[in-house]
Amino acid sequence: MDRTNETYFADVVSNELLTPHMRRIVFAVDGWTSSGIADEWVRLFFPSPGGEDAALPVSQGKGWSFPDGVPREGRWYSVRAIDGARLTIDIVVHESGVAAAWAATAEPGSRIAITGPDGRYGADVAVDWELIAADMTGLPAALRILAELPAGRRAIAVLEVQDAADEQPVNSAADVEVRWLHNPQHGHAPSLLPAAIRDLRWLDGSPYVWMSAEAAATRDIRSFARRDKKVPNGCAHVVGYWSMRRNTAR
Ligand SMILES: Cc1cc2nc3c(=O)[nH]c(=O)nc-3n(C[C@H](O)[C@H](O)[C@H](O)COP(=O)(O)OP(=O)(O)OC[C@H]3O[C@@H](n4cnc5c(N)ncnc54)[C@H](O)[C@@H]3O)c2cc1C
After folding, report:
1. How confident is the model at residue 246 (pLDDT cuts 50, 70, 90)?
2. Which domains does the chain have, with CATH numbers?
3. CA-nearest residue, atom 5 of ligand 1
4. Bridge partners of 207?
5. Which of 81, 185, 208, 79 is nearest to 135 (CA)?
6. Which of 17, 241, 245, 246 should be mutated for ligand 1, with most atoms under 8 A from CB?
7. How far out from the chain centre does Cα 217 lie?
């Protein structure tokens, strides 16, 4: 169930560089509960450029308003982990953007607003194996999905990071074959994921395909999965998490 009309204050507990191009921020969020969906995401609302304090937004259908009338920028982020009232979010380090700039300077005690969760991971029908593919923006959700796969499940993970130092441990009880791709131009050149996925030897049986990455890469693989591999809609969640050509803030 989409619970993104719920809003909460989120206070930074810690902020560290997890890998050279990924920041890990742990928030304390009273009352927030997980949807239980492995790729669940929330919207974070950052302080306005004028420096106004965090305020809880009010959902207005497709948009949000704030009680003091001052707009705040919002961006979507995956929930990497939940531990009681502590919520972990991993944010890609990149050159420009409200979220990236806020993450670079947020300190313990910094306050923002977040929404309740929404998520889509999961096939409509039983499948034989899973293809989990992500660039750095989809990596937090991909690693959580892989961590939550049951023993006996077969999966191939194709994960694109900027360089080897951005790789993270893949913990899973499942039988996962992991392929790391290194793209030193991540954010400035097309993703390496489409070519790698097209070259992949797919496993036998029916797959579930989950992919989150740059919009052009996901458009390519959405079409490849549906047209070439005949993956039914209910067995594919292939979504652009950002666009190299423009600001995708929603
Ligand atoms: C459901 C969902 C879940 C997501 N989960 C995560 C997550 O867990 N971690 C995460 O880091 N991101 C995640 N994203 C992507 C994140 O919301 C976008 O990258 C967002 O645009 C970043 O906002 P910004 O303010 O930093 O940059 P923006 O103001 O949106 O963009 C400014 C400029 O930066 C470029 N840009 C945006 N993102 C990147 C990037 N990652 N690398 C290089 N250039 C970029 C844009 O093309 C634009 O030119 C998720 C997106 C969705 C839709």
Report:
1. low
2. 7-115 (2.40.30.10), 129-242 (3.40.50.80)
3. 77
4. 129
5. 185
6. 241
7. 15
Q: What length does the chain have?
A: 250
Q: For 65-95, how does the pLDDT look when each residue is reduced to its tens digit (9 = 90+)?
A: 998 888 899 999 999 999 999 999 999 999 8
Pocket of ligand 1 (CB under 6 A): 41, 75-78, 90-92, 94, 96-100, 136-137, 140, 187, 241-244, 247-249
- CB-CB contact of 26 with 14 (8 Å): yes
Higher pLDDT pick, 152 / 96? 152
pTM (global) more than 0.85: yes
Question: Which residue minimizes the CA distance to atom 24 of ligand 1?
Answer: 97
**Mutation to probe ligand 1, out of 24, 237, 242, 243 (largest number of atoms < 8 A from CB):** 242
